[in-house]
Specification:
CATH topology of one domain: Maltoporin, Chain A
Helix content: under 10%
Shape: globular
Structural class: mainly beta
Low-confidence stretches: 1-43, 47-52
Strand content: over 45%
CATH class of one domain: Mainly Beta
Largest sheet: 22 strands, antiparallel, barrel
CATH superfamily of one domain: TonB-dependent receptor, beta-barrel domain
Distance between the termini: 32 Å
C-alpha cells in the first residue's frame, strides 16, 4: 500500500482554514434548500443512557438499565456518528464517568472509568466474551458500546476496578442497505457500506456485511495513514427455539503515532505556545504503527423449556502488531528521565518491536432464564468460561538516537539494532459464574452473584531468562438490594469486588523475584436512584472504591535489595449523575462526575493524601439537539465538555489547568424521491480553537502532556437505498 511522503506540509499542501469553513457553511446553507424538495423526516433527539436501554454486559438479559442496581451506559452508533467520533478514545466526550488515560493519536486507546485506568488486556469484552484491546477498535461493524462502571468481579475473572467496556457487534436485520462517505479536516476521507437482509418469507436465515476504508490525514502533521475493515455476521434458525450465529471481522490500521509533550525541567509549558499539530515522531526513518486483527465467533442458543436457554459461545481473536516510533523520553543532559530538558530538548530513542502476536480464545457455556422457586420469581444465569491468552514477541530495539526539539524538525540517525529482550506470556483461566435476581414483595428485589476463577500464568524473556510461573484461584462476590418506587423509579444499594493478579518481577534485585503476589481485591459500595420518564429521565449514584496497592520497598539498586509488597490503598469516592430531558423540539442530555481520588495507608507517609496523576476531580459532559420547525428533519446539535485539573507528577507538585470545549454539529434526514433516504451530518470540533493540555499521563515512569486537538471540521452523508 502506497503512502504519501511524511513531510511538513507547505502552505499549499493543506486547505486553508477559510476554505474548510466555507465548505461547512455551504453544506449547512444547502440543507434548507434540499428540504424544500423532500418530504419531512423524523424528529431527532439526543439518545439517553438512563432510559429503557438494556446492557448485555451486566448479565441480566433485557432488563432495562433503570431497573439494574449498578451504573452502566450504552452509547449507540448514531450518537458516535452525530458527534463525529471515529475512535474509542473520543467517547470521553459523551460520558462524564469516562476520561482519557493515555491516548496518543495513531495508537490504541486507553480509558479510565471512575478514575481507574482500564487494563486493555482484561477490561474489554466483545459480545460478552473477553478480548485483548491492545489494538485499534474499528467502529464500522459495532452497534453500540456498553460501559459498566465500578468493580466488575461479577463479569470478569481479573480486571482493573474501574469497569468494563463491551463492544456490541451488528447482527442481521431485514433490508439493511446503506453507503456512507465522510470527510474530516485536514484530509481524512472514508467510505463504508452496511448491507444485510433476512432470506425467505420466514426470515430464518440472516446476513450482514460491513466494509470500510479510510485514508487518514489528521490535523497532526506527519501522521498520515490508512484504516480498513471487512466484517460479516450470519445467523440461521435451524429449528424452532434453535439459533446459530456466526460473525467475523478483519481490520488493519497503518499510521504513525503521535508522542506527547512533557514538562520542561520544572516548568509546565504554556499550552497556548504549543502547536497541537506538531508530531514529535518526525524522523526520516519513522515508520507507522501497523495493527492488524482478525476475530471470529460462533454462538448457539437453544431454548430448553419456557424461559430457559442454553448458550454456547466461542470466540477467537488474533492480533498482529508492528510497533515503531521515534520515542521522546527524558533528558540525559540534566540527568532527569521523567521529563524533557529545561530548554525544550529531549532524548530520542529508536523503538521497534515488530511481529508482535497476541492470541485470545474464549468459550462460554451457560444456562440463563426465568424460574419460580419457593414461590419466588428468579432471573438467573449460571455457566463456565474458559479463556486462553498467548503473547509472543521478538527482540526489540530501544536505542538512544540523539536529541530532539519541540518544533519536531530536528533529525537524528536511526539505530534499529535489536538490543533489548521482550517478554512472552501465557495464561489459562477457568471461571465458574452464577448470578440471580429474586423478586421479593412490594417491588423489593434481591440480587446476588458469584464468580470463582482459577488461572495459570507463565512468562519468560525472549532470551529464556526471568521465567515465572504461578497458579492462583479466588472468588469475587456481588450483592445488591433494589426497591421499585412507583412505575418509573428504582433505589438500590450494592456491594462487590474485583480482583487483579500479578507476580514480583523476575529480577535479581527482588527478594521475592518471580513469586506470585496475593491477589489485589478491590471493593466497591454504591448507592443510587434511577428514574425513567417520558419527559425526564435521570440517575444519581454515590460510590466508594478501595483498591490495594503494591510498592517496591528498599533501595532497589543492587541484588536482593528490593521487595514488592502490599502498601496501603488507592481510593475513589464520588458522585455521578446523568439526566435527559425531552420537550417538543428540544432534547438535552448531561452527565457529571465529582471524584475524590487519594492514596491512603502507605507506610511512606509522604504518599498518603496524594492525588493520582491524570485523574480530573470533576467532569461534565452536555449534549443538546434542537429540531428546527421550519426545516423538518434538520437538527442542530451542541456538545460541551469540561474536565478539571490533572496532576502531572506523583508528588502533586505540578498540575494542568482544567478546560472546557464546545463542539457544534448539524444533522439532516432527507427522504429521497425514489424511496431512499439521505442522512447528512456536518460539524466543527473545538469551535473556539481552545488550547489546553487535554490529558497528562504519567506513563513508563515519564510525565507526558497531550494537547487538545485544534479546531477541525467534519462532514458525512449516509445513503439508504
Amino acid at each position: 500500500m502506497a503512502f504519501r511522503s511524511f513531510v511538513h506540509p507547505t502552505a499549499s499542501s493543506r486547505p486553508p482554514a477559510h476554505r474548510a469553513s466555507a465548505l461547512l457553511t455551504f453544506l449547512l446553507a444547502a440543507l434548507p434548500a434540499m428540504a424544500q424538495t423532500t418530504a419531512p423526516a423524523q424528529v431527532i433527539t439526543v439518545t439517553g443512557q438512563a432510559g429503557a436501554n438494556s446492557a448485555s454486559v451486566a448479565g441480566f438479559g433485557d432488563l432495562p438499565l433503570w431497573r439494574l442496581p449498578l451504573s452502566a451506559s450504552v452509547i449507540n452508533t448514531a450518537q458516535l456518528q452525530d458527534a463525529g467520533i471515529a475512535s474509542l478514545a473520543d467517547i470521553t466526550r459523551l460520558d462524564a464517568g469516562v476520561t482519557d488515560a493515555y491516548n496518543p493519536p495513531g495508537y490504541w486507546s486507553q480509558l479510565a472509568v471512575r478514575g481507574y485506568t482500564l487494563d486493555n488486556r482484561f477490561n474489554y469484552r466483545r459480545d460478552g466474551l473477553p478480548i485483548n484491546a491492545e489494538t485499534v477498535i474499528v467502529q464500522a461493524n459495532k452497534q453500540a458500546l456498553e460501559i459498566l462502571k465500578g468493580t466488575s468481579g461479577l463479569q470478569a475473572g481479573t480486571s482493573a476496578p474501574g469497569g468494563l467496556v463491551n463492544l456490541v457487534v451488528k447482527r442481521p436485520q431485514r433490508a439493511v442497505r446503506s453507503a456512507s462517505l465522510g470527510w474530516e479536516q485536514d484530509g481524512t476521507v472514508g467510505a463504508a457500506v452496511d448491507l444485510g437482509d433476512r432470506l425467505g418469507a420466514d426470515g430464518r436465515i440472516g446476513w450482514r456485511l460491513n466494509a470500510s476504508a479510510t485514508r487518514l490525514d489528521p490535523p497532526m502533521r506527519n501522521a498520515r495513514g490508512s484504516r480498513r475493515l471487512l466484517a460479516g455476521a450470519f445467523d440461521v434458525q435451524a429449528a424452532p427455539g434453535s439459533l446459530v450465529e456466526a460473525e467475523f471481522e478483519l481490520s488493519r490500521q497503518s499510521q504513525r503515532s503521535t508522542p506527547g509533550f512533557s514538562l520542561l525541567g520544572n516548568r509546565l509549558p504554556d499550552a497556548q505556545a504549543i502547536d497541537p499539530r506538531t508530531n514529535l515522531n518526525n524522523q526520516p526513518w519513522s515508520l507507522p504503527v501497523v495493527m492488524a486483527g482478525s476475530t471470529a465467533s460462533v454462538r448457539y442458543t437453544q431454548a430448553l423449556t419456557d424461559g430457559i436457554d442454553l448458550v454456547a459461545h466461542a470466540m477467537r481473536q488474533r492480533l498482529r502488531t508492528d510497533d515503531r516510533i521515534a520515542f521522546p523520553f527524558g533528558c540525559s543532559s540534566e540527568n532527569n528521565y521523567d521529563r524533557y530538558c529545561s530548554d525544550g530538548s529531549f532524548d530520542i530513542y529508536d523503538f521497534r518491536s515488530e511481529g508482535e502476536r497476541r492470541d485470545t480464545d474464549a468459550l462460554d457455556l451457560s444456562l440463563a432464564g426465568r424460574a419460580t422457586l419457593g414461590g419466588l420469581a428468579h432471573r438467573f444465569k449460571v455457566g463456565v468460561l474458559g479463556t486462553r491468552y498467548q503473547a509472543r514477541f521478538n527482540r526489540q530495539a530501544y536505542n538512544y538516537a540523539g536529541t530532539g526539539t519541540l518544533d519536531g524538525l530536528s533529525t537524528v540517525p536511526a539505530d534499529p539494532t535489536l538490543t533489548d529482550e521482550n517478554t512472552n506470556r501465557d495464561e489459562r483461566s477457568t471461571e465458574l459464574h452464577l448470578q440471580d435476581m429474586v423478586e421479593l414483595h412490594g417491588g423489593l428485589r434481591a440480587w446476588a452473584g458469584l464468580r470463582h476463577s482459577r488461572l495459570q500464568r507463565d512468562s519468560v524473556r525472549t532470551d529464556g531468562s526471568r521465567a515465572t510461573a504461578y497458579a492462583q484461584d479466588f472468588t469475587t462476590p456481588w450483592l445488591a438490594l433494589s426497591q421499585a418506587l412507583g412505575d418509573q423509579g428504582t433505589a438500590y444499594l450494592s456491594w462487590g469486588q474485583a480482583v487483579e493478579s500479578e507476580v514480583a518481577p523476575g529480577r535479581a534485585r527482588y527478594t521475592n523475584a518471580g513469586q506470585a503476589l496475593p491477589a489485589l481485591k478491590s471493593r466497591q459500595v454504591e448507592a443510587g436512584y434511577k428514574r425513567a420518564g417520558q419527559t425526564v429521565s435521570w440517575s444519581l449514584a454515590a460510590f466508594d472504591i478501595r483498591r490495594p496497592e503494591w510498592r517496591d520497598i528498599g533501595a532497589c539498586d543492587i541484588n536482593a535489595s528490593c521487595t514488592r509488597r502490599a502498601d496501603g490503598q488507592s481510593r475513589r469516592t464520588g458522585v455521578e449523575a446523568e439526566a435527559e430531558w425531552r420537550s417538543g423540539a428540544l432534547s438535552l442530555r448531561g452527565s457529571a462526575l465529582a471524584l475524590r481520588a487519594r492514596r491512603e495507608g502507605s507506610a511512606d507517609g509522604s504518599l498518603n493524601g496524594k492525588r493520582p496523576t491524570n485523574v480530573p476531580p470533576t467532569s461534565l459532559k452536555l449534549q443538546a439537539a434542537y429540531n428546527l420547525a421550519g426545516v423538518p428533519g434538520l437538527a442542530l446539535l451542541g456538545y460541551v465538555t469540561h474536565e478539571g485539573e490533572r496532576m502531572v507528577l506523583p508528588d502533586n507538585s505540578i498540575a494542568t489547568p482544567g478546560w472546557t470545549r464546545l463542539d457544534l454539529a448539524a444533522r439532516y434526514s432527507q427522504r429521497l424521491s425514489g424511496g431512499g433516504t439521505a442522512l447528512w451530518r456536518a460539524g466543527v470540533d473545538n469551535l473556539a480553537d481552545r488550547r489546553a493540555w487535554k490529558e497528562a499521563p504519567f506513563q513508563y515512569g515519564h510525565a507526558y502532556l497531550y494537547p487538545m486537538a485544534p479546531r477541525s471540521l467534519h462532514a458525512s452523508v449516509a445513503l439508504g437505498f
